[in-house]
Amino acid sequence: MPNYRRATVLAIFILTALYLLTSPRSSSPSAYQGLPPGHGTAYTMPTGRPSGTSQQPSRPYPPPRQPNGSKMPSQQPMAGPSSKNLRDKLQYQFPYDLEAKFPAYIWQTWKYTPASGDFGDNFRSAEASWTEKHPGFVHEVVTDKAAVSLLKYLYASVPEVVEAYNALPLPVLKADFFRYLILLARGGIYTDIDTTAIVSTTDWIPPEVPRSTIGLVVGIEADPDRPDWKDWFSRRIQFCQWTIQAKPGHPVLRDVVATITEDILRMKNKGILKSNKIDKSIVEFTGPAVWTDAIFKYLNNPDYFKMEGKNITWEAFTGMESAKKVGDVVVLPITSFSPGVGQMGAKDADDPMAFVKHDFEGRIAFSLLRLERTNWCIGSWKPANERIHPERQSDNKDKKE
User: Which of 3, 18, 113, 190 has the most CB atoms lying inside 10 A of its own CB?
Assistant: First the structure.
């Protein structure tokens, strides 16, 4: 009898063990379900949780039903690009990375490409000099028609910029605006079609200055040290914009693009965006005056610079004979982009600081015929012959007579 009982108990134990071993596992999901092998430890408990507290999901789904009369809090929309002002949109679309390399692009604009027979023999050697001095760079001469498509693509998320560009009534205004737009979006070098590269851009800055600390390279166009300078130039120190090197997204470019866009749309809404009604001179609207103002505004902006003492003014750059670095901006002396002009301290084209020669032909071809019929030139941008001081003009007249 005892043997029978032992056998019965043993049989019950074996059957129970078989049942437990063969029964299905719990269907509750594991904390690591769906994770790839080896990633079970990816889930971590939030820091500061008391030990022994049960792990509950922070947001159960579906959400629990709310008591009668109570409302779910309204969801706040995220601040996307469309809800920002123009400068914020441009910053969002074209972020600035100081430590990035300068893009190896050379941008120029003209009515025709070099492949066209209408390009102009007077520009061919100048245009070719940029390719010769910069092997390995992408060199693009963008036509007026191609510029429309290119900017429509680059600024698709900022349509007011495209609207502003297309609304400009004169080619010279579009040529000015294009250089800022292409550098903001893509960076590299913009240079007018009538400029000649004397020295490669790789040699513009001393090798001991890290390129990772520079985002913008500009040159002085005018440094008129005379009491009547306002009769000849718009600013006491005027930065040229026929040649600019920049990294994409630079704040100066962002500001000048926003300023010009806002001015264009303002005039368009007022119905005065016409060649004979615009309320600003070309130089103040899109030219070196608005460009110079944007640079000085940036150099004196406490959001970017630790301001110590008085503001940076023209006095910081007058009489320069070598490059000067202010923050992430390198300013080159007048000889660098205006060699051989014979005034304001500019030296000849064979000087070691001479980097680019400008013939002033492209801008004159764009605009002089129109400007003769307006008073836009007064106190603004001057053609090459008007940049000579009055006494030198009289000397030239005597020579002709």
Answer: 190
